[in-house]
Amino acid sequence: MNITFEQAHKVFHAAVEKAKEINVMMNIAVVDCGANLTFFGSMDKAWIGSIDIAIRKAKTARYFDMDTKTLGKMSQAGEPLYGIEVSNGGLIIFGGGIPLKAGDEVIGAIGVSGGSVEQDIEVAEAGVKALVD
Q1: Which residues have CB under 8 Å from 86's CB, separation 6+?
Q2: CB within 10 Å: which end of the chain, N or C, has fewer?
Q3: What pTM did the predictor assign?
Q4: Residue 122: per-residue pLDDT
């Protein structure tokens, strides 16, 4: 199963609304189940350097079907995935990337960058919530 255009649109726009609500300009990426970019937007005055980060967060979340915050914890020195961030052309291992599911099946992922890690997570979670509502 793959995320549909309509689902990706809904996820993206819910994330944009949350970013506006907290007044942080974000880059927001949605990828499909194959980690292909499906939807992307860069809000006015969002950091240019965060474009790649948002896309890589979404891809990282899909590659491993876990949120990037959890992956980050597992990739610290002494942990089982130490060094994983250099695989797959470079991963992002801090919060803001979350898999998107339909039931128990991963159908894509969202990646958000432009604020603090906590703000990125908050905006990504708003996108996830829109998919299940």
Answers
A1: none
A2: C
A3: 0.94
A4: 98
CB-based contacts of 133: which residues, under 8 Å, 6+ apart?
A: none
Phi, psi of 31 (to 5 degrees): -115, 160
Hey, what's the torsion of the CAs at 28, 11, 15, 120, to 10 degrees? -60
In the chain, the amino acid numbered 70 is: T
Domain 5-132 has CATH 3.30.450.150: yes
pLDDT band, residue 133 (cuts 50/70/90): confident
CA distance 39 to 54: 11
Residues sharing a CB contact under 8 Å with residue 66, sequence separation 6 or more, in sequence order = 99
| Domain residue ranges of the chain, discontinuous segments joined by + | 5-132
- Let me know: does 106 contact 62? Beta carbons within 8 Å: yes
